[in-house]
Amino acid sequence: MASLLQLLHLIFSISFLLTCRIATSNRTPKPYVVYMGSTSSSNNEGSEVQVAESAYMQLLSSIIPSEDQNERRSLTHHYDYAFKGFSAMLTENEASILSAAGHPDIVSVFPDSVLQLHTTRSWDFLETERRILRASATYNKHVSSDVIIGMIDTGIWPECPSFNDKGIGEIPSRWKGVCIEGPDFKLSNCNRKLIGARYYPTPEMNSIHGSKMSPAAGKTSSGSPRDYVDHGTHTASTAGGFPVVNASYYGLAGGTARGGLPSARIASYKACSKVGCSSSSLLKAFDDALKDGVDIISVSIGVNFFLSNYKNDPIAIGAFHAENMGVMVACSGGNDGPFPDTIKNTAPWIFTVAASSIDRDFRSTIQLGNGKTFRGSAINLSNLTKTRTYPLVFGKDVASNFTPTNEASNCRPGSLDPEKAAGKIVVCVDNDPTMSRIIKKLVVEDMEAIGMIFISEAEKDVPFDSGTFPFVQVGSVEGLQILHYINSTKDPRATILPTVEIPRYKPAPVVAYFSSRGPARLAENILKPDIMAPGVAILAGTIPHTDEPGSVPVGKKPSQFAIRSGTSMSCPHVTGAASLIKSVHPGWSPSMIKSALMTTATVHDNMGKPLTKGSGNPANPHEMGAGEISPLKALHPGLVFETTATDYLRFLCYYGYSERDIRSISNTNFSCPSNSIKDLISDINYPSISIANLSRNQTAAKTIQRTVTNVGLSNATYIAKVYAPVGLVVDVFPHKLVFLKGVTKLSYNVSFFGKEASSGYNFGSLTWFDGRHSVRTVFTVKVQ
């Protein structure tokens, strides 16, 4: 804890600054986070916490004018276990004064911004399609049920069958968490599976958004740990859900729904609502999860804007302290693909996940009046049949008065005439990228149309759930034929049939269209994303949707499962895989588990060909990281790269942070290397290699060092094999690694020479073989 003497010094400094700047004070208070680095001890309890809270209050009192003391002299949250700080309502001027006060414990002061949620067969696909033989008895014998997964999300629906605790033993004695009750959440809702549930009321969300929330949004932001959004329940059941046989979404995606480690315990931390997740609540959730004793934290959340540094990123802050305490943090990479430079959660201590498809697709058939049929992407529970067709129109032909043709063709809000569109199937195009297919569907549905055909190449392989409303998406080739039929026929008609499942779909996996891409803006010398996992049309637990018109077919009960897509869905797959490894190797650090999953990842699809993206072109590491996770292979990786706390502190040095901030963040007397430049980030001991600038004019090769730890059999010999693009010269020294008895760590150098290489990004890999294991390290090199 910061000493009271230091805080008194800070208060004096603030008083001086206030007298100098009060005239220009901005009087509109907004929520801010004051981050004050690492605690001196991770056992802060009782009186120490009270002293810290009192000191924060004293600090707050020193900066808030006396006339505002009664209204604003309170902490929204305070952090006291893994890291220090608090959140409170401050004016812009008060926040800048805190930043300028020069106190060694204040690392950053930043607005309490809103972060966004990034939102069966997948586990079977990951295991069986890799042709990995699984001896169930041996496998289950070694799996521990004491791994605790912390889910920071929108809460949990405890009645979901994925959280059944049948056959699960007593709660681990090391668990220190709680199950917080609420008007709609009882203590008995927790069990040996769902062992903890917290929530974080966020009354400041109005101020963050600058407007009042809707009643529904307010309902979901506080009150209890119960999930009213569906996101948290879906991700938790994906990561560690109990096996549920005969699970399906109204007959689609039938099978056994389970998590990556079905025996894992789940602790839910509700820090988000429909409107998003406040930075202050996320930090409080991290602090509580670490205090409670979780082993792995899953965060399917990210910023929706560009951050200038890691000190203002609540997920990067929370994950840094989690890593220091031996807790892995897996995060979704974001849904802003297919554009480059869009990847989120890029700090090297975060396990960043891209999304891929699995070998299952959902298709709906369009039958035209002339008998022609087209198959498109869809998840619709339509009750239309082949025996009856309906008038088929293009959006521009049912435009409202004075509406531009382009707007009506795109089915923009207000562009269609309800009298003209009612009772018809409306065709909409996608010339306006600012309008999502969800909005277009709602526009058409609101016109009381029979159904909608959407013509778009974007996300055509990511089926959209339209509930009972008949909706289907086709590509431009099929779309042009449908429009030609409309234009050449006196009475064009069509029907849209209910969705059917396409099993054993090929090729799979494929990089999801929406999955955010690298390189990472903040630190291109770290390859991001790290890994790829299933995130398209994933069946998992849900909340009962009883109040959404058209979500439940007539005569059916609300489904206990839902099909969702997003990197939000891929992240808990990695969480589950990491939990499996943790259960078998409890002594492994987060970086060892991360390395195991990265170096054993597969780069081939179920046709035996290199992984691709939606366009059919080969995928590269900026799109898929090291490749698709292969959880069972990762149990025995042979070699691992251990990224140490010192590596991460050096990263901060190379990135440009001051020693003062780094010492405060780490609670150490760490000194930066004398030569600290961004190019040296490539040298931290990471399971992949990224070089942001390799000049063709360099007369000498650029050399990168890595150290591997042998976690396989002793007396092993590994031989290196390099796969490099033409023109990029890559050499390894030594070319052979010999692990004799008692030797567990060895280092090697990789040199890159780009005189003849192509300009731009060059991708390749280095693989170490010992006859049993293949330890693959991908690299990206930007040649200037």
What does this structure look like?
- The chain is an alpha/beta fold.
- The protein folds into four domains: 108 residues, Alpha-Beta Plaits; 304 residues, Rossmann fold (3-Layer(aba) Sandwich); 136 residues, Glucose Oxidase, domain 1; 104 residues, Immunoglobulin-like (Sandwich), CATH 2.60.40.2310.
- Helices cover 25% and strands 26% of the residues.
- It has 21 helices and 40 strands.
- Strands 17, 18, 20, 21, 22, 24, 25 and 26 form an eight-stranded mixed beta sheet that branches. A seven-stranded parallel beta sheet has the order 7-10-6-13-15-16-28, sandwiched between helices.
- α1 runs parallel beside α2, α1 packs across α4 and α9 packs parallel to α16.
- The longest helix is centred in the N-terminal third of the chain and has 18 residues.
State the helicity in percent bands: 25-40%
CATH superfamily of the largest domain: Peptidase S8/S53 domain
Number of strands: 40
The radius of gyration is 27 Å
CATH topology of the largest domain: Rossmann fold
Q: How would the global form be characterised?
A: globular
Low-confidence stretches: 1-5, 7-25, 128-142, 203-221
